[in-house]
Amino acid sequence: xxxxxxxxxxxxxxxxxxxxxxxxxxxxxxxxxxxxxxxxxxxxxxxxxxxxxxxxxxxxxxxxxxxxxxxxxxxxxxxxxxxxxxxxxxxxxxxxxxxxxxxxxxxxxxxxxxxxxxxxxxxxxxxxxxxxxxxxxxxxxxxxxxxxxxxxxxxxxxx
Amino acid sequence: xxxxxxxxxxxxxxxxxxxxxxxxxxxxxxxxxxxxxxxxxxxxxxxxxxxxxxxxxxxxxxxxxxxxxxxxxxxxxxxxxxxxxxxxxxxxxxxxxxxxxxxxxxxxxxxxxxxxxxxxxxxxxxxxxxxxxxxxxxxxxxxxxxxxxxxxxxxxxxxxxxxxxxxxxxxxxxxxxxxxxxxxxxxxxxxxxxxxxxxxxxxxxxxxxxxxxxxxxxxxxxxxxxxxxxxxxxxxxxxxxxxxxxxxxxxxxxxxxxxxxxxxxxxxxxxxxxxxxxxxxxxxxxxxxxxxxxxxxxxxxxxxxxxxxxxxxxxxxxxxxxxxxxxxxxxxxxxxxxxxxxxxxxxxxxxxxxxxxxxxxxxxxxxxxxxxxxxxxxxxxxxxxxxxxxxxxxxxxxxxxxxxxxxxxxxxxxxxxxxxxxxxxxxxxxxxxxxxxxxxx
Lengths: 159, 441
Hints:
- The complex is a heterodimer of chains A (about 160) and B (about 450).
- Chain A is about 25% helix and about 20% strand.
- Chain A has about 160 residues and is α+β, with helices and mostly antiparallel strands.
- Chain A starts with a strand and ends with a helix.
- Chain B is of the alpha/beta class and about 450 residues long.
- Helix content of chain B is about 25%, strand content about 30%.
- In chain B, strand 22 (about 320-325) and strand 23 (about 330-335) form a beta hairpin.
- The chains are: A alpha+beta (about 160), B alpha/beta (about 450).
- The interface between A and B is large, with 53 and 67 residues.
């Protein structure tokens, strides 16, 4: 199965992924509606893009009381908009924080891998996001470990 | 050789998840008999049915085609009345006797009303069952005045729907604050102000003495203060576990059926799940009844897995609630009101934003969030807080950072290594199978 591989060290913080994603999701350019988000660290000198890992447990899917989340042909967990009622159980179930809620539509939203052609990977100019055939992994692990020190904490506070 | 017979009593979330999970593991090898006093539906979505967003069909779960696919024998609109745990026989209200190999008790809870005159009169409603929801829908019309007794979580889940139906709402709460079992005083004050600015009348420390008829309307007499006149009264004054029918069964009960990490009661062939079960609280490690949807779901899945022969241990249930009222999100997790915890809190009243983190050392054990739905990070942060609390991740230096930047949970989350701890962590210890794809054979 293909997954989104994230290499934070390549991210320049350009936010093209957020723009592209929001356009794919809503046909508008609204980073707030993007389901991939970039966080800045070290006073904007390093970045980490972050989105749904399409995890095995599928916390969102099992939480839904009306089975509004299913698995697509490319293995993405997808919200069925005509079944979703907007109860937000999935948003508190997902421990990754990658389950979103759109207050305009009153529906849950999440990464659906754009049906197999993810716009974020296409938009990324530095291959910080790639759509590749590999195992899902903890892409942020090394990034997090390197930045766990008090030096980082101080710098991030200035950001 | 006869197939193992599993009996599930209760048609709610816990029962449904147990049934699908048994099938996920045994692929139809066993018999599943499912007893439910009502045709199964999702209680969680009744507020949207009340609002008029969805049809009754949308609320129903486990329809005939699905039951056939799952090879489940339904006993719907039949009530369980007696359990003989020695002979392993369940008796229904029509005197049907069902012999079982093991049984899951998932009969949930029922709404309670205050013991005052008129509490059960015409025009006074509870909002718990589908039938009660239909009663409330029939009673509402544009411009009607609704008095809601109780300002707890359930009351708040139907608040938007009542307003959407054109009603003028007065909320009466006996405690000194609204949402007394969900948020603290500062949070409650913020929510109360938000609602009052949107024409919801709120009275706290309001004890109802009686509900009387008054020329086609209902009059609520208060112990102190002015009476309230309303067209419809909704009692959202709490729930009580449906335990009475188990008296004499030998099952150990203490406000709920005590269950071990496999969701088993003191009697090995009897499991319990959902509102009726008292299992492990993830944060405190102590037995607790968590009458919330996520717990019913997890209990059902773990109980079902164990009934199907998988030795799964349940880590514990995380108390959590989220509700939105007129564009304001309210969420609380874990030990949100632990008096012994170290507390960080930040209030931005001009933005209707409030955050509170409760710590045990450098682990977050509880949290509260309040914020406008339109402020992007309100809903977005709830999942991350859940992840951090669930994994018990130690935040180290990020604790000091959060003390001064309470709204920057995302940075701390990403840099904390929580995601690494989450990837292998599952409730069932194995890759999930979609419920929709589970079939008997």
